[in-house]
């Protein structure tokens, strides 16, 4: 018996036990009966045998009977008095609605020959057969059932503690939650900017449409497609679109749905899922968050991962036996391909792997086009190309969020249509949270912020290697008192050293302006410094851009799609560490000097810009260019 069936059996036994106990209780319900002491009963036999009405009933444990209505008891006079009491008073001493019934327990050790005594006194009696209820069941009901209930409770609690809390109540729903989503058909047209992925999926569509053709030629059809990419990049959409294009049903389930706290439920859901697929072929089965079940076996820390491993094993087994079923394609999505069990990626399983990465600038523009289609009404001045450029790092979901936010803003301002201002505001909201115009800021603080932001803007303007200005504002938003944003003219996947230095100079420009104008240092530059330092450190340790030579220092574990560094292992000596720190320091201070030089030579521009900011709060590219004059051009004006 494997684990999952065993656990199911335990559950059924518990339920059966409860039912048996209930029936037992039902059988043993009695009318209100007076509990007579055994010794009193004996006295009645000896002294007053006429007090009983009709037959006594004897079984192995009990004597049951009824007192005669008008008999006069003699030794135990109080019984009789009480039977003659007023009903209310009687109810407080005797069982409610007492009709004279009594029972007395027999003495199992010292039982005298009671039948002989009764015969002697002429009291009539019945002898009951041993038990109304099979003895075995009785013992089972009174001892084993509570034990099983207790055991079940233990399992239940321990599972609940391990698993995600509120799942506790979904027990018994052993069927996977599957939804067929045919209502709104999604096609490839709705998914933009992921052309490579679409191309790779084209084959799957062809196969779903004409499975026979593929079969005839004997090629091995992909059974599993794994979509890997950060959250919100349209993996679910792609899977739905494949179903839409091929016009087959789409069933989806999330990997986390498999991971339940009841042992065996996950595995049975996997079985159900594949059953369903086979029944409805051709179709698409989509498993979101595959990593929730598909994690490396034995990778868990501590115990309690049996259930997941069992589910994963079941998944692997089902996929293995899937070969001969025609027309069912499994698509899974994950943003942690690095933690997947390698067995999942073997031929015959998820052997087709497609990366769905964050969209590039062209992809973003395409996605924006899709999401601003009718019924959205766009103003003339909306330029999706610029918006796409201004939103590096946005996922498809972020962009959708942005367009939605823009539409809401336009409605809130009673605008005819959605204009560029709405989009701009929506973008900043998605990035940094809403504006905080209500934040009380002193005039002095506002002045410092204006010069700080003007300092940043000046760097973007006068360092030709950097990206140009996009917007500069002193309206507080999120945690920032002001923001200066740049507009990357083109998407870059490979940064030159000069561009990196330009960015560090840009980051330092704010603080330099404060120092030059006010001779003061404030805390507002913390984030700027963090950025500058982090970039400089990577230049030294990862990109070989310092006198430390073309080497990398430190081995790092990164999360593939989340871009977070999990840990860095120091693989160099302490002496090297000191040198690295010095190299980082040199880069940043060098840039600080450059920023200082630029501001010193353009003090007039800085003041004009800061004044304009104080007056207008927000300046865009054209306004900045107007104040500072045309932007210097490369190569003659390079300062790096
Ligand atoms: P994932 O499954 O990768 O987390 P989803 O497919 O659930 O992402 O996408 C979430 C939402 O983001 C979608 O409903 C869609 O509106 C939008 N979206 C994401 N990527 C795209 C894209 N490439 N084209 C159009 N819309 C997209
Ligand atoms: Zn700053």
Record keyword descriptors for this entry.
640 residues, alpha/beta, five-stranded mixed beta sheet, 23 helices, 16 strands, elongated, binds adenosine-5'-diphosphate, binds zinc ion
Can you describe what's shown?
This protein is α/β, with parallel strands linked by helices and 640 residues long. The protein is 49% helix and 11% strand. It has a six-stranded mixed beta sheet, with helices on both faces. Strands 1-4-3-2-5 form a five-stranded mixed beta sheet, with no helix packed on it. A three-stranded antiparallel beta sheet has the order 13-12-16. The longest helix is centred in the N-terminal third of the chain and has 28 residues, at 135-162. Residues 452, 456, 510, 525, 528 line the site of zinc ion. Adenosine-5'-diphosphate (ADP) binds next to helix 9, helix 14 and helix 16.
How are the elements arranged and paired?
Elements: H1 3-27, E1 34-35, H2 38-47, E2 56-58, E3 62-66, H3 77-83, H4 87-93, E4 101-105, H5 114-121, E5 125-127, H6 135-162, E6 179-180, H7 195-209, H8 211-217, E7 224-228, H9 235-246, E8 250-254, H10 255-258, H11 265-279, E9 283-288, H12 291-294, H13 306-320, E10 328-334, E11 352-355, H14 361-371, H15 384-389, H16 396-412, H17 420-432, H18 443-462, E12 469-473, E13 483-486, H19 497-518, H20 526-541, E14 555-558, E15 565-569, H21 574-601, H22 603-616, E16 618-620, H23 621-628
Helix pairs in contact: 1-6, 7-8, 7-9, 11-13, 14-16, 16-17, 18-19, 18-22, 19-20, 19-21, 20-21
């Amino acid at each position: 018996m494997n684990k999952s069936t065993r656990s199911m059996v335990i559950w059924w036994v518990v339920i059966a036990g409860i039912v048996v106990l209930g029936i037992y209780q039902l059988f043993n319900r009695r009318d209100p009966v007076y509990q007579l002491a055994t010794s009193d009963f004996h006295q009645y036999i000896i002294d007053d045998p006429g007090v009983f009405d009709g037959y006594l009933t004897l079984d192995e444990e009990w004597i049951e009977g009824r007192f005669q209505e008008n008999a006069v008891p003699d030794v135990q006079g109080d019984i009789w008095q009480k039977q003659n009491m007023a009903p209310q008073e009687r109810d407080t001493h005797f069982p409610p609605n007492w009709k004279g019934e009594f029972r007395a327990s027999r003495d199992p050790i010292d039982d005298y020959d009671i039948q002989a005594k009764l015969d002697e006194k002429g009291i009539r009696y019945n002898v009951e057969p041993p038990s109304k209820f099979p003895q075995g069941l009785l013992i089972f009901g009174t001892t084993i059932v509570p034990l099983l209930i207790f055991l079940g409770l233990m399992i239940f609690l321990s599972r609940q503690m391990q698993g995600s809390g509120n799942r506790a109540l979904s027990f018994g729903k052993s069927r996977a939650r599957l939804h067929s989503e045919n209502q709104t058909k999604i096609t490839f047209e709705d998914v933009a900017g992921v052309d490579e992925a679409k191309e790779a999926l084209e084959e799957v569509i062809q196969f779903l449409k004409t499975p026979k053709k593929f079969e005839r030629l004997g090629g091995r059809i992909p059974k599993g497609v794994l979509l890997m990419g950060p959250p919100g990049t349209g993996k679910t959409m792609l899977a739905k679109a494949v179903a839409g294009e091929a016009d087959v049903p789409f069933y989806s389930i999330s990997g986390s749905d498999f991971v339940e706290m009841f042992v065996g439920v996950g595995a049975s859901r996997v079985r159900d899922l594949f059953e369903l697929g086979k029944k409805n072929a051709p179709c698409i089965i989509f498993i979101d968050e595959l990593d929730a079940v598909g994690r490396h076996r034995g990778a868990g820390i501590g115990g309690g991962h049996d259930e997941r491993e069992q589910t994963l094993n079941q998944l692997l087994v089902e996929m293995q036996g899937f070969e001969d079923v025609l027309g069912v394609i499994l698509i899974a999505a994950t943003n942690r391909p690095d933690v997947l069990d390698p067995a999942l990626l073997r031929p015959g399983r998820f052997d087709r792997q497609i990366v769905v990465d964050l969209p590039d600038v062209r992809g973003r523009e395409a996605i924006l086009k899709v999401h601003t289609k009718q019924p959205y009404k766009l103003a003339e001045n909306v330029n999706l190309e610029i918006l796409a450029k201004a939103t590096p790092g946005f996922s498809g979901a972020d962009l959708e969020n942005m367009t939605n936010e823009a539409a809401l803003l336009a409605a809130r301002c009673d605008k005819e249509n959605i204009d560029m201002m709405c989009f701009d505001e929506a973008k900043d909201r998605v990035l940094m949270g809403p504006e905080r115009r209500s934040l009380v800021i002193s005039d002095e603080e506002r002045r410092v912020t204006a010069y700080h932001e003007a300092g940043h803007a000046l760097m973007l303007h006068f360092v030709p290697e950097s990206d140009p200005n996009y917007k500069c504002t002193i309206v507080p938003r999120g945690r920032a008192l002001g923001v200066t944003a740049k507009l990357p003219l083109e998407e870059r996947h490979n940064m030159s050293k000069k561009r990196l230095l330009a960015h560090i100079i840009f980051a330092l420009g704010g603080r330099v302006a404060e120092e030059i104008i006010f001779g003061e240092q404030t805390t507002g530059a913390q984030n700027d410094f963090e950025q500058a330092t982090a970039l400089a450190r990577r230049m030294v340790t990862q990109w070989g851009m310092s006198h430390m030579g073309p080497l990398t220092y430190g081995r790092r574990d990164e999360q593939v799609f989340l871009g977070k560094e999990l840990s860095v292992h120091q693989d160099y000596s302490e002496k090297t560490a000191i040198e690295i720190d010095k190299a980082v320091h040199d880069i940043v201070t060098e840039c600080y000097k450059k920023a200082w030089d630029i501001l010193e030579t353009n003090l007039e521009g800085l003041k004009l810009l800061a004044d304009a900011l104080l007056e207008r709060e927000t300046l865009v590219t054209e306004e900045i260019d107007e104040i500072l004059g045309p932007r210097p051009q490369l190569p003659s004006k390079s300062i790096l």
